[in-house]
């Protein structure tokens, strides 16, 4: 490898500065939310906080962790994300594997049907009526069942199975007496770990951030996920919707936190941090699969 020219070094330097600037633009809003969540609300309302908390406190998080509704909403979100992601990957990959086999009867009409459904849908009202007929309205499974099959992910998986799983390996397994189920679990899944990691991350993020389903299809507050509850908090102006009078009275008696140092905004910032951090911690575990998994089903060799 030859030495870099002045033009190459200049380009690399400017490229690094530009990427660093965009990285800062992406990261700073998250940092700003974090420092506001760690600062006293009354003090933060005075402004002038940009890099570090000026009046450090954990009271905003104590408010959240003492609210049973938020804790329950967090567990609902964790459960729907785990079950929904695993179920979606399993069901979608099974359909994708079946459609990747050329010997499947009616394969081409089915692909055209799935493509049509992906481009056009019946709308919100028919979707609501269908959920009601299935008994999913105001149920935990409304978060899981409708999202167990993704047509877009199915097409990506199908292309990956066709292009990246050697047909000779499949034929050898058939000669050894393996059926389609055994081939799927012993060949298709191990070959597709990077793809599953990438699509699983996208699916998990979508499940974790979904507030729409809980807002429109679930009336029971005990079944609403954290994003829906957070949306309700952020849509209100008065702090009483988040910090009730009974909470404040309990705070004064138990001294868990200082009610004079918190505001609705500071509590919302802390709730946002709790919402964001868990899904951010998942990314490092799938990072090494991420780029490969994104590309593996998109290019035909």
TrEMBL record:
Transmembrane segments: 12-34, 73-98, 110-129, 135-155, 183-205, 266-286
Chief place where the protein resides: membrane
SUPFAM superfamilies cross-referenced by the UniProt entry: MetI-like
Bilayer topology annotation: Multi-pass membrane protein
UniProt KW keywords: Cell membrane, Membrane, Transmembrane, Transmembrane helix, Transport
PROSITE patterns: ABC_TM1
Residues covered by the ABC transmembrane type-1 domain: 74-286
Keyword Membrane tagged: yes
Cross-referenced InterPro entries: MetI-like (IPR000515), MetI-like_sf (IPR035906)
KW Protein biosynthesis (keyword) present: no
Subcellular location: Cell membrane
Family membership: Belongs to the binding-protein-dependent transport system permease family.
Protein name per UniProt: Carbohydrate ABC transporter permease
